[in-house]
Design brief:
Length: 99
C-alpha cells in the first residue's frame, strides 16, 4: 500500500512535549523541524525542539490524513501517550527508520 501522506508525532529529547503534524515528505519535514529548532524557533516544534519522531501513520489521501490529525490533536496527553506506546513501546526516536 502506497502512503502519500503521513500524520506524525514528534517530541523533544526529554519526551515532555508532543507535536502532531501532517506531511507528504516525512524526512523533509523532520529536517525542517530540526532546522527551526536550531535557528529561528518560529514554529511550535522549533520552540520546543520537537524533532524526534516517535509515531507515524500513512494515508493514501489528504482528506483522511487531515481528519486523523485533527482527531489526534483533540486527545488528552494520556491518550496520545497510549497511542505512541502501542506503536513504539520504548519511545525510540524513529527519525532514521522512515523513508
Amino acid at each position: 500500500m502506497f502512503h502519500a501522506y503521513f500524520v506524525y508525532i514528534t517530541t523533544n529529547e526529554n519526551k515532555t512535549t508532543l507535536y502532531i503534524g501532517i506531511t507528504n515528505n516525512i524526512q523533509k519535514r523532520l529536517s525542517q523541524h530540526y532546522f527551526d529548532s536550531q535557528n529561528a524557533k518560529k514554529s511550535f516544534a522549533g520552540k520546543y525542539n520537537c524533532y524526534y519522531l516517535v509515531y507515524y501513520e500513512g494515508f493514501e489521501d489528504i482528506e483522511t490524513a487531515i481528519q486523523r490529525e485533527k482527531e489526534l490533536k483533540k486527545w488528552r496527553r494520556e491518550k496520545k501517550n497510549k497511542l505512541i506506546t502501542s506503536f513504539n513501546p520504548d519511545w525510540e526516536f524513529l527519525n532514521h527508520q522512515v523513508i
